[in-house]
Design brief:
about 25% strand; 8-stranded mixed β-sheet; 9 helices; Dihydrodipicolinate Reductase, domain 2; alpha/beta; Rossmann fold
């Protein structure tokens, strides 16, 4: 069994990874955790940091109520019968020499600031063969798990062999959801004579995360009171869009944070020019068929929702994106701007509405990224722009 080190076990991603991981299926177990000291509660002096850690796991997934125990004498928690060693300390300062074993991979799940810092993420190579960070990081190679295996000549940047790189970022939760929607379009275009992305847009309803707060501290979206308050913000997807399609004429993201449970919602628009080898034009059914094929082949990546349930209907779904398939939500327009009338190459538009689970769906992408690292004979990633 391969061993993985989890660095950071806060109230969402780290805690949820512990409940969703299935070692016998995944081929690895999270055997150790590095997490910051948790101060004791003066009203409950008999409780320890392990009790607080268990609370994080159970609150993240109440189904874990009877599946998490503690060995207080040895700083161990037992999750679904598996022992996990706890190492208390700041991820940037902890003495890694005190951890007496090596790991096949590490997951850095502390903060975007840590993940995007090459010095912080690389320090864990002392004990881990590979390290992945759960955010975007422009200076670090990207392991976009929902684009693994894509070999599309129309991508401006293609995945390359990693070389000596052993640290990777997997993009944000919303990036993974958006790339799951991009993948079938890339699969469809493999047989085209020409394919050019002209514009990319995505509007997001983003459930609040633990970095939010009650009460207003500043004008930042994360620091405004979330109650009855839609807050305009940015999305890390834009970094991935600019990276994958640097010559696109239009890249635009809008993210509204609001106090709801995951999943959130994305409205994605893809503008592109294309030419099929047989000269035929695309139809909505042709495009939708490509999406159905991809969803069937990669269920962890994509699910097609034939019924327009509200978000609660997909609360336990672990796919990176759930696309609504009815004609009201999945739309394709061939030459909607009537470009041909002006003797220009026509631009087509694909509009997709989908649910993106920023916790369960994202954690499944993290697990799949680790599986890829420990199983693949040749690892490919998207290298940073020099």
């Amino acid at each position: 069994m391969k061993k993985v080190l989890l660095i950071g076990c806060g109230s969402e991603i780290g805690a949820s990874l512990l409940s969703l991981a299935e070692p016998e299926i995944d081929g690895f177990s999270i055997s150790d955790i590095i997490t910051s000291e948790i101060s004791s509660d003066p009203k409950h002096p008999q409780l320890t940091g392990l009790d607080s850690l268990i609370t994080r796991i159970v609150i993240a997934n109440p189904n874990m109520l009877d599946s998490v125990k503690a060995d207080y004498n040895n700083d161990i928690i037992i999750v679904k019968g598996k022992k996990i060693n706890i190492h208390w300390g700041d991820a940037t300062k902890i003495d890694l020499n005190k951890i007496k074993q090596k790991f096949d991979a590490g997951i850095l799940a502390t903060s975007k600031t840590h993940v995007s810092n090459p010095e912080i993420i690389s320090r864990f190579l002392k004990v881990c063969k590979y390290v992945i960070g759960v955010a975007e990081g422009q200076q670090i190679p990207s392991l976009y798990v929902n684009l693994i295996g894509v070999d599309n000549i129309f991508l401006h940047r293609l995945p390359e062999l990693t070389g000596d790189n052993r640290c990777f970022v997997i993009g944000s939760c919303q990036t993974n959801g958006w790339q799951a929607q991009l993948r079938p379009l890339l699969e469809l275009s493999k047989d085209f004579a020409n394919f050019e992305v002209c514009g990319l847009e995505v509007d997001i309803i983003h459930p609040d995360t633990p970095t939010g707060r009650l009460g207003t501290k500043s004008i930042s979206a994360r620091n405004q009171d979330p109650r009855n308050n839609l807050r305009p913000s940015f999305s890390q997807i834009e970094m991935a869009m600019d990276y994958l399609f640097p010559f696109s004429n239009n890249v635009n993201t809008i993210s509204l944070r609001t106090l709801i449970h995951p999943p959130g919602y994305q409205i994605s628009r893809f503008f592109f020019r294309y030419k099929t080898r047989n000269g035929k034009r695309l139809t909505r059914d042709t495009v939708l068929n490509s999406y159905n094929k991809t969803a069937k082949k990669y269920p962890d990546m994509l699910r097609m929702g034939d019924l327009p349930f509200g978000s609660r209907g997909y609360e336990n779904c672990e796919s990176a994106a759930v696309i609504l398939t009815s004609k009201n939500f999945f739309k394709f327009f061939d030459d909607p701007f009537k470009s041909k009338k002006n003797n220009q190459d026509s631009v087509s538009e694909l509009i997709i509405q989908s649910y993106v689970h920023n916790v369960r769906g994202y954690c499944r992408s993290v697990i799949n990224a680790i599986k890829y690292l420990i199983q693949a004979k040749q690892i490919k990633c998207f290298l940073p722009v020099k």
